[in-house]
Structure formats: C-alpha cells, structure tokens
Amino acid sequence: MNRSAKAVFVVVSFVAAFVIIVPLATIPAFAQAKPTPADITLASNTQTGYQFIGFTTATTKGGAGMFAMNAMCANAFGLGARVCFSDEFLRSPVALPIGTPGSHYAWVYPTIVAVYYDPSQKQPVYVDASGVTGSINTLSCGQWTVNSSKGMGLVVATPKSDTTTFSLFGTAECLNSFNITCCAQ
Fold first, then answer.
1. How far is the C-alpha of 83 from the C-alpha of 63, rounded, in Å?
2. Structural domain for 128, as ranges
3. Is residue 162 in a domain?
4. For the chain, N or C: smaller number of CB within 10 Å?
5. 90 part of a folded domain
C-alpha cells in the first residue's frame, strides 16, 4: 500500500469512527452556550437502520480499538454486525437484552448530539444522545485507544437488581473489560 493510500485510510477511518474536532473559534456563539434538553436533537446515526442485536460474550478493555471491537461483534453475530452507537441502542425495539453481559456493563459508541464550551473546565463538553456528558476522553476511551484509568468510555449498564432492563448509561474506566453492545441492519 502506498503512503497516500495509508493517509486516506486513516482520515476516512477517523471521520467514520467518531467526531471531527474544530477549533472553538470556528463554532458560532450560539453553539457555545450549554444546551437545554429542548435544544438537543438526535443526528448522525438516526437513518442507518442499525438496531441492537445483542451483547458479545467476550469482553475487552476500552482501548481495544474500534476495528477490534467491531470484529468482536462480527464474530459473535455475523458479518455486518458492529458496535452500536448510543442512539441506535436507544431506538432499538428490543424488550429484553440478548446475551445479558456477565459484567453488567457493555461498551457502546457515543453519538454526539451537542457540544458546548465549559469555561470552568476550559474545554468543550460533548453531549451524548443518552444525556451523558464529557470530553472526548471520557466518552470514548481516547477514541478507543486508552486502556488505563486516565480514560473513560461510554457504557450501557444494567442495575444489578434487575438484569433485564438496560436503560442506564454512564462512563467507566477504560482499563475494565466489558462486553460490547452490537447492532446490525
């Protein structure tokens, strides 16, 4: 593979994987204020047709990488299966979880629906479709490359008292090994 093909592959992979970060100066002033729930509308993955199909039985740390995580879904559920985005999981018409994670947590890709600047933190704050907020590192394990307590990643969690309801989202340290939330068309 020639060098330019590698560069194109990396850029395409990054864009498809998560978010393009733009300098704050290029964000209009109205987008720099903290959004209210009425300001947030789901975007990006709402028309993909992907729906939740189950959880991997295998577990992995958050920094395993998006390709490895997608491959785990494909191994568990066949070609075309991949890690769910949070909005796909939220929209899926599944009454009970398939393959309940033994760990009670499963990694899920964030769907960023809003960004605002927090002057107290001196950085942008990203709002996921689930309502969870954080930096890029606290929602995606440093874009799924960090396996330490310095990064956090978005997880869907089940309360230990009710293992049939997956309605809670949160973040967990990337050094933990969890199942993966998988979707397919």
1. 14
2. 22-184
3. yes
4. N
5. yes
> Cα(59)–Cα(69) distance, rounded to whole angstroms?
9
Q: pTM higher than 0.85, yes or no?
A: no
pLDDT of 171-185, one tens digit each?
A: 999 999 999 999 999
Beta-ladder partners of 54 = 182
What is the tens place of the pLDDT at every residue in 79-110?
A: 999 999 999 988 887 644 544 555 578 999 99
Whether the CB-CB separation of 169 and 130 falls below 8 Å is answered with yes
